[in-house]
Amino acid sequence: MRALFLGFGNVGRRVAEILADRSAWPGLADLDVSVIGITTGSKGALANPAGIDLASALAEVRAHSRFSGHPDASPLTSPEAARTLDYDVLVEMTPLDLPSRGKGAIDHIRTALTRGRHAISANKGPLAWGYRELRDLARERGGAFLHEAAVMDGAPVFNLARYCLRGNVIQRIEGILNSTTNFILGALEEGTSLEAAIAQAQAIGVAEADPANDLDGWDAAVKIAALANVLLGGNLTPEEVERESLSGIGPDRIKAARERGCRIKMVCEVFREEGRIAGRIRAREIPLDDPFALVAGTGSILRLTTDLLGKIVLTEEEPDLTTTAYGVLSDLLSITLPDPAITR
Amino acid sequence: MRALFLGFGNVGRRVAEILADRSAWPGLADLDVSVIGITTGSKGALANPAGIDLASALAEVRAHSRFSGHPDASPLTSPEAARTLDYDVLVEMTPLDLPSRGKGAIDHIRTALTRGRHAISANKGPLAWGYRELRDLARERGGAFLHEAAVMDGAPVFNLARYCLRGNVIQRIEGILNSTTNFILGALEEGTSLEAAIAQAQAIGVAEADPANDLDGWDAAVKIAALANVLLGGNLTPEEVERESLSGIGPDRIKAARERGCRIKMVCEVFREEGRIAGRIRAREIPLDDPFALVAGTGSILRLTTDLLGKIVLTEEEPDLTTTAYGVLSDLLSITLPDPAITR
């Protein structure tokens, strides 16, 4: 299986590290992937139809922050690579560009699927702004469009729905899916000011230099739209998601919640309303005996309410980069290995 | 798809009610199941190769606690029905018989699989005492052996492992899987005596008339062995599981735990030890910020620790009979409908 990697940030590099050190992961013994291209926005690109040596690619980026000295260095951009290289699966791991509504990533995936290739997206933009088109295109051309790492890191959100909830109607989804706001809420509870909490989050890498997209709920809105579209068959864009900004949550509200035995959490919700699928993010008072109250650090949680199975909750505890990389690897496994049929 | 039901207790009847009222469950529209036999230990049996009318079977049992007045009444025993009726899938829902180490249920399933038919088990005994043989027999004869309802009601424990954790090595499993002891621990925390707590549990149907199998950890030990054998490839019997009895947990221990900010929970554990798979159930002090501390009522929880994905937790909240029945229905769906391939 020949893979083209678009993007070589934290997730792309961790996927490459794991693939380069396959013997450390016994469950990946049968995963046969050869990376024939890696493109980036600022580090240059690599291409080699015989397969790139991932250890040397990683070493090159570590040493020089660029691929330019590598023997497989290439002038290809991501769109060019998606259009021209001979890969079986395109792995979209570029950063989400909110102003363009994920256009770059959507274009890359559309190109791959149009060519009848498979596409994996660790980028949630294509699920929020292009899901229906891309899913239909994949079906029409016979490729797979998988995206396990796009929401909740590598936790098997989409595989759970695909394989483990058959026969159910999902009625409602609730989740805590944005680590930045969750971390900051924890700091606010301990009496830290919003400014200091943001600085703390930035210091440990939980918040970006410009935290506005997290604070104002844009990151969560993109995830809500992704879940609504994939799991409930909606056609929701992040712009249509009702958002509440963390900036409006003052110490008084946190204190009042605590006095009622609750904690404030920013909760993502997807639900059916008047025959359509709607989504919102809002600050909710969560009682301390609800597992949503316990989500801390970079952890996340998702509750699915269904007609037959009832309520199940999936919690991801202390995820790290390997967890997110696993989302991409599980999609690669889904594509390269046969479906796990019940008679095997 | 022709199904033979062995057992018509709470779960069997709920499955039948749902199948008889298909229009209430939109996700089951494509589930094409005709029940051609129902056998029980004390209610008699029904058989009709053209399909039993489930509504009338349910009405008959409700009115007379027996099938004898039904037009499809039959003298068949479960072993005879398993051996002679022409079904596609045998659904084993008889009560677990601990003294015989699940022999009756294992025999029924062995008969079906030997005939090249599929088998579904809501009974955990066959996973604890016969898994390896039955799994190998299913593979050899081309049938499926599914058992989603056997542990944690209908929560997708086995489907999660089969479909959503590919590539991972499961290193450890922890769970709260016995509602009786969990309910009683909750009552003990509130100062109720053990005797009164047991009586309360019996009054609401959480404990059986003879609660010894729950209190002494046998129910949990059977579940631990089932998880060890299916999810970790072990070959563990319930007798080999280290057990701690709830009867040894006095009010002092509960109070001491609370003073340390913890609650006592009976935790099932499966882990690797000296190259083999081991299991135990023990009373553990759980800090209040661990979701295990929150499991109440008939809820249950499972934490899987893996090498790639890290730690994920599956929680089932407020399950009812429909939840357990869904475990059986999801297995019927797996057998009757094609696998959910990634390119569909």
Overview of this protein structure:
The structure is a homodimer of 344-residue chains. The longest helix of chain A is centred in the last third of the chain and has 16 residues, at 321-336. The first copy, chain A, folds into two domains: 2-154 and 321-336, Rossmann fold; 164-316, Dihydrodipicolinate Reductase, domain 2. Chain A has 344 residues and is of the alpha/beta class. Chain A is 38% helix and 21% strand. The model of chain A has no long low-confidence stretch (mean pLDDT 95). The first copy, chain A, has 13 helices and twelve strands. Chain A has helices at residues 10-20, 54-64, 78-84, 103-114, 125-129, 131-141, 157-164, 179-189, 194-203, 212-215, 218-231, 251-259, 321-336; strands at 2-6, 34-39, 45-47, 73-74, 89-92, 118-121, 145-146, 170-176, 262-273, 276-287, 300-306, 311-317. In chain A, the strands form two sheets. Chain A has a seven-stranded mixed beta sheet with strand order 4-3-2-1-5-6-7, with helices on both faces. Chain A has a five-stranded antiparallel beta sheet with strand order 10-9-8-11-12. Chain A starts with a strand and ends in an 8-residue tail after the last helix. In chain A, helix 8 crosses helix 9.
Biggest interface pair, counts: A-B, 62 and 62 residues
Q: How would you name the CATH homologous superfamily of the largest domain in chain A?
A: NAD(P)-binding Rossmann-like Domain
Separation of the first and last Cα atoms of chain A = 23 Å
CATH first level of the largest domain in chain A: Alpha Beta
